Amino acid sequence: MATKIGFVSLGCPKNQLDLEVMLGHLVSEGYMITDAEDADIVVINTCAFIESAKKESIDNILDIAWLKENGSLKGIVVTGCMAEKYRDEIIKEMPEVDALLGTGSVHSIVNAVKAVARGEKFTEFGDKNTVELGGDRIVTTGEAMAYLKISEGCDNCCTYCAIPKLRGRFRSRPIDDLIKEAEELVSLGVKEIVIVGQDTTSYGKDIYGEYCLHKLIRRISEETEVSWIRVLYCYPEKITEELISEFETNKKLVKYIDIPIQHISDKILKKMNRHGDGELIRSVIKTLRKRVKGIAIRSTAIVGFPGESEEEFDELCEFVKEAKFEHFGAFTYSREEGTAAYSFEDQIDEEIKEQRYDIIMKTQMGIADKHLRSKVGKEFTVLCEGYDAVSETYFGRTADNAPEIDGNVFFLSKIKIPEGTFVRVRIKDALEYDLTGEIL
């Protein structure tokens, strides 16, 4: 009987794609994928970007360890960013963990599982900068959408971020490899491809000598039958004229862009080692609004960064009011070891960070509520992602909403709607983050 493998995926979509590649390796070797409760071995793909992510990873390891102590679970394999960052601590302090793989060793998952099945411990931390990118994968996001990771690593070296140490330098995947993977996803029935990477707007610079995100989008739209293409993690200073033109003219590229600004104060942006200043950010937002009619813009910012004054925080709040982001999220600054900002003076008190977080999110809540209510009574195309048995409604997303991070549309239908079907829905009401409606 085949060994049963359960999995837990934590963190960002980029991390989830690594897990999908690992599952691809395991399935090709004859392993069976199942729920964690029924598994012989569980793979936990961890995140450690900020302190809360690290805590979530630890909690999940301990929860799965309970199954090992009280059930039939034989072993635990920990992978991902926390495994990379805290390898020594995990080996020393978490005996429940049987195998540990760094971010440069995703392709060694079969060896790790085989060792655990034999009752052996296994650790491997390959070179992050030379690990093969991509690979056959098991899509875990359903039939409606799938992520496409176009690059790995990051060269931006923001002072608050450990990603370059955890993931290595920036490396783009060859465009032909990405087209082939996109074709395979569409052949599986995927309707929406969501392009991700640590910095998608840098795509191609390292191997082609120029920013090529617009060329990749154009080729995917022309060479596959995908219905929607969405792009996340765009850096404002690298949003080129060619990319904006693609948003204007490409009917498959949804009018949605994710631009993590992190702040608007020139002083704070410089301390963060962000490239580009507040004026550039304002200019990019203004240009997108003017040229791409109806575009939905998502952004994120960090509050409580070392040295952030009340005036600089107020400037950020005023900009959020000015920009009127359709989607916006804030994070309190997390002081992470191994980053330049860890040793900065003028660290902000945690209570002040939380106060600023509450203020800026209340500011955004009013903007988001007005945006959602503007949709009531109108009709939209919705990509159905499933049926919610609790509310007894179908749910899906409009082109204005990215999967997992933005809201949903819950709608009624008298006929069965398969996952991955596009339907027209009239919006009846707006909730805190979601919309409700009825199928036409």
Can you give a write-up of this model?
The protein is α/β, with parallel strands linked by helices. The protein has three domains: 4-124, 3-Layer(aba) Sandwich (Rossmann fold), CATH 3.40.50; 145-373, Alpha-Beta Horseshoe (pyruvate-formate lyase- activating enzyme); 379-439, Nucleic acid-binding proteins (OB fold (Dihydrolipoamide Acetyltransferase, E2P)), CATH 2.40.50.140. It is 36% helix and 22% strand. It is built from 14 helices and 19 strands. The chain has helices at 13-28, 51-70, 81-85, 87-93, 109-117, 163-167, 175-187, 205-208, 213-223, 241-249, 266-271, 278-291, 310-323, 350-373; strands spanning 4-9, 32-33, 41-46, 75-80, 99-101, 122-124, 145-149, 151-152, 171-172, 192-196, 228-231, 253-258, 296-303, 327-332, 379-388, 393-397, 409-412, 422-430, 435-439. The protein has a six-stranded parallel sheet with strand order 2-1-3-4-5-6, with helices on both faces. Strand 11, helix 10 (241-249) and strand 12 form a beta-alpha-beta unit. Helix 7 (175-187) packs parallel to helix 9 (213-223), helix 9 packs parallel to helix 10 and helix 13 runs parallel beside helix 14. The longest helix is centred in the C-terminal third of the chain and has 24 residues, at 350-373. The model has no long low-confidence stretch (mean pLDDT 94).
Gist of the model:
This protein has 440 residues and is α/β, with parallel strands linked by helices.
What Rg do the Cα atoms give?
22 Å
Strand content: 15-25%
User: Given the C-alpha coordinates, what overall shape results?
Assistant: globular
Low-pLDDT sequence parts: none
Q: In this structure, how is the largest beta sheet organized?
A: 6 strands, parallel
- Please name the fourth-level CATH homologous superfamily of the largest domain: tm_1862 like domain
User: Kindly state the mean pLDDT as a whole number?
Assistant: 94
Distance between the termini: 48 Å
The CATH C-level class name of the largest domain: Alpha Beta
Number of helices: 14
The fold-level CATH name of the largest domain is pyruvate-formate lyase- activating enzyme
Secondary-structure-based class equals: alpha/beta
State the share of residues found in helices, binned by percent. Answer: 25-40%
Shape-level CATH architecture of the largest domain: Alpha-Beta Horseshoe
Total number of strands: 19
Number of domains: 3
Instruction: Trace the largest sheet across and list its strands.
Output: 2-1-3-4-5-6
